[in-house]
Design a protein that fits this description.
alpha/beta; single chain; six-stranded parallel β-sheet; binds zinc ion; 10 helices; TIM Barrel; globular
Length: about 325
């Protein structure tokens, strides 16, 4: 079945949209196992403990002690869960995540999926695509993630709880289409949510047209990331009308030019009835941007600065929704496998 945008999605629960209350049997798949959505707590909906991409050489997130210090700083401010949007092949450190979660007491949702083609050696992509990308993602969601950045690494016991994909600047190339198509296949096999990197916040309409329009992924299982980097309020309302989750980033060292629009953007969407679909994450992508061991703002900024501001501008109920109730729905699924 093909779906167009849900009309009148806001103001009431609409089947298959982000506004549904958690369904019976839905759980959040963390690296330590599946947990009821109500147990997730205060969530950083998009961040990274470990990440290594060529574009940020020299600023890798590859230090377990620094990751633990950042996690502890977030925990100290009341943080309870972090979704790490690092896909396969980019220094995800799947084998270290359970230990990090246990040591800090944070729930950690990890990702399978792939980023844009430019972040990988072409030979690596050929190898994992040869055996079927959808099956590759599904195995990481159901059996466990590979321990390293190469398909030869052993599989860990830690399962991914989401699929990370990426669009291109104002469009999708062939690689992005293949990855999104494989993500839809893995979603239909498992129920997993799909988190999307949008280059400078663009191409979300293309992504939705493919995932929701052509591939029948319910919008409530799609998390559109980085939308704050293309701060067009009208576009954001159009995207919200689809029923998808809209994921905004906290202040970033590399995209700070749009930070000043964040609060107004959230307030406008909330006023239009889309509060249940809003998510916020820190998206810490460099060692320098860590708070505990770098120059900040890092993960703690989300709770130290942003949450009180959101509570002042949008109200405490809205802050509670953005940090607790919305991520609990966004990351939960009735896992088919
Ligand atoms: Zn990210």
């Amino acid at each position: 079945m093909r779906r167009g945008p849900d009309t009148g999605a806001h103001g009431g629960a609409v089947a298959g949209t982000a506004e549904d209350t958690p369904v019976d049997g839905a759980t959040v798949r963390t690296v330590l196992g599946d947990v009821p959505p109500g147990r997730l707590g205060v969530t950083d909906a998009h961040d990274h403990f470990f990440l290594r991409i060529p574009a940020l050489a020299g600023q890798e997130l590859d230090d377990p002690a620094a990751a633990a210090a950042e996690a502890a700083a977030f925990r100290e401010l009341g943080g309870a869960a972090v979704a790490q949007w690092t896909p396969f092949g980019l220094g995800r450190e799947a084998a270290r995540l359970p230990e990090l979660s246990r040591a800090t007491g944070l729930h950690v949702v990890a990702a399978t999926g792939l980023h844009q083609a430019r972040h990988y050696a072409p030979a690596l992509l050929d190898r994992i695509e040869a055996d079927g990308l959808g099956a590759f993602f599904t195995a990481e969601l159901t059996e466990g993630m590979l321990a390293g950045d190469d398909p030869d690494w052993p599989r860990t016991a830690a399962r991914a709880g989401m699929i990370k994909v990426a669009g291109m600047f104002h469009g999708l190339d062939d690689h992005a289409r293949r990855v999104l198509t494989a993500a839809a296949e893995a979603h239909h096999a498992t129920g997993a949510p799909i988190g999307v990197h949008h280059e400078m916040g663009t191409a979300a309409p293309d992504v939705l047209a493919l995932l929701q329009g052509e591939l029948d992924v319910p919008a409530g299982s799609v998390l559109l990331g980085h939308l704050n980097r293309f701060p067009d309020p009208g576009l954001h309302r159009e995207l919200a009308a689809s029923g998808a989750f809209l994921a905004f980033d906290g202040p970033s060292r590399t995209h700070h030019a749009t930070d000043w629009r964040l609060l107004d953007g959230l307030a406008g969407l909330a006023a239009a009835g889309y509060l249940p679909q809003l998510l916020l994450g820190g998206d810490t992508v460099t060692a320098q941007a860590r708070a505990a061991t770098g120059e900040g703002p890092g993960m703690p900024y989300l709770l130290r600065v942003l949450r009180p501001r959101v509570a002042r501008v949008l109200g405490e109920r809205a802050a509670e929704a953005i940090w607790v109730a919305n991520p609990a729905r966004a990351f939960s699924a009735v896992w088919a496998a």
